[in-house]
Amino acid sequence: MTVDISINYGKLEEITQEILTFKTALEEMQTAMQVVKSHLEESAGEAVDQLKEEHEKLEKSVKIQQEEISDLYDIFSGYNAEMSAIIGPLYPQINTLVDRLDIKANIKSIGNSVDDLEKEVRRRLTPNVDLGIDVGLNDEEKADERHNEGVIEALKVNIASKIRAMQELVLCQEKGQVKVRK
Q: Three-state DSSP class for 97?
């Protein structure tokens, strides 16, 4: 008896592009943080010194997040490229039926990384410092910051939902069930 599963490689590509958008947002955030840093360097005082310390912690946190999001991008883009090469979907924007051997290749490729990925995303994308980053920014820069924060939050929610869907897919396969979306 052959067990088939349906995978939408177009959706995987969408996830990859959303991660790329998130990566770009982090780069823009780092640029904005450099502006804040330059304003802090021009100032002096005990409160400014504390802000500088917190800013340094935030810079480290953003750098870690950038590394992790780069890893996520590499994982998703690499997975999509590898599996597309193995399976060769004719129409990547619709669900592609994958047979048992392809499923085994998928599971081997994924391994436990989906669970690890979810844990890393939650751990790395949860800010550990609240700086009140709008110190020294003009109204336009503050609006940009709020916009970027909204984009990042939306991406976090979207990525989390995609990870949950992938986990469900892996669980169904491990239980021998087939889950086909139409």
A: strand
